[in-house]
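This part of the workshop introduces the protein records we will be handling. As an example, a complete record with its sequence and its structure tokens follows.
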Amino acid sequence: MNIGVIANPDQTAVYAPLSRLLSWISFNKSQVSLQRSLAGKIQAGHKSKVRSVEYEHEILDEADILLAIGGDGTMLRAANLVLDRNVPILGVNCGKLGFLADIQQEQLEDALQALYDKSYLIDHRFMLSARLPDGSEKFALNELLFARGATASMVTLIAEYDGKLVNKYWADGLIVSTPTGSTAYNLSSGGPIVMPETNVVVLTPINPHTLTTRPLVVPADRKITIKVEPPDQDTLFSNDGREYRIDHGHKEFTIKRTDFTINLIKLQTHNYFQTLRNKLMWGMDFREKP
């Protein structure tokens, strides 16, 4: 089994689980591939067990599985790294919440053994693609964000679904979220929690001026168009936290569901509702005694 690993080399918390991984492969027929900036910081005794590469995308050349050690930001980076290459991702949490990276460090050896024994589940998550005004294409596992730039003024955004006008939003911004991203920025902005396998997209305005404007859930199989009108508004676009300032004259974005999915590895004991309760304290009543 060939395991590719990505992690932030500047985060000291990633080295303990990485060391446990390298100790585990000493007793199993596996190979680990790391980017050189990360491989250079591991203990000398482990270096012989590692295939070191210059660029992060080269990790995937021989990887059967991609191990993302960190938080949900690392998981989002992993998703954009694999895109349509069909390499499944296992997330090990070294951050705070770890909603996507839901394997805790104390579970690492059990998770690795499950990989070795092929006794795991695959959770298929779709992504969104956005065609920008300059013709480039960006992808998001969580959300696409349209927001006001460096100004105190709200931004005016027009949303269309399948060629039909949805609404004219006057707000701090608009989130176009996948079910995966429904527990991220969408939830913080008052949007609904959506089960991951649900084939829908959520449009959630951020601080809309009109209080009757509410989040909207639509099927994911139709095209969504977002227009900035008038186009001279200072506008920020981001996909999963990667920001782009849009300075072009005509600001129109075409959004659709991708044909490929991101495959997340889950242990057979995984329970989405339990994750909601544990990570988000969903439904918890503090008036109840333990």
Summary: The mean pLDDT is 90. The two ends are 43 Å apart (CA to CA). DSSP finds six helices and 17 strands in the chain. The chain has two domains: 2-118, 127-259.
